[in-house]
Design a protein that fits this description.
Blueprint lengths: L2 E5 L1 H13 L3 H14 L8 E7 L2 E9 L7 E10 L7 E10 L8 H10 L3
Parallel strand pairs: 1-5
Antiparallel strand pairs: 2-3, 3-4, 4-5
Length: 119
């Protein structure tokens, strides 16, 4: 089942900022994509569904980063299953942050995302 990955402009800014600190991040993100490509809703305690609206599910997950030596980053992403085309799964990354810098996800950013992508 093919998965399409997109990034919001805010996510791209988060990523650019964190790339300066964590050199392994591009490879770590590719590994993460493989996991969510197979299990879009994730599994285990490293994935939490934050909200669900129509066919869009917002998920917070731990992104293991080798540069952090055991710590992990948090990634917020939207999972959308197109019911007309079940073979296409869309995942859009919304936010990326280091737990040590910021306690929680940006709820306003998630609200804005849902508002702009409501069916």
């Amino acid at each position: 089942m093919p998965t399409s990955f997109r990034q919001t402009s805010e996510f791209k800014k988060d990523l650019k900022k964190l790339l300066k600190k964590y050199r392994t991040l591009p490879d770590d993100l590719e590994e993460f994509k493989k996991v969510v490509g197979l299990q879009p809703l994730g599994f285990g305690k490293n994935f939490v569904v934050l909200t669900k609206q129509n066919s869009c599910v917002i998920i917070k997950a731990r992104l293991f980063c080798r540069s952090l030596k055991g710590n992990s980053l948090r990634v917020i992403y939207a999972y959308t299953e197109n019911h007309q085309q079940v073979e296409l799964i869309g995942i859009e990354f919304i936010e990326l942050y280091f737990k040590g810098d910021k306690a929680n996800e940006d709820r306003d950013r998630i609200r804005q995302y849902l508002k702009s992508h409501s069916n």
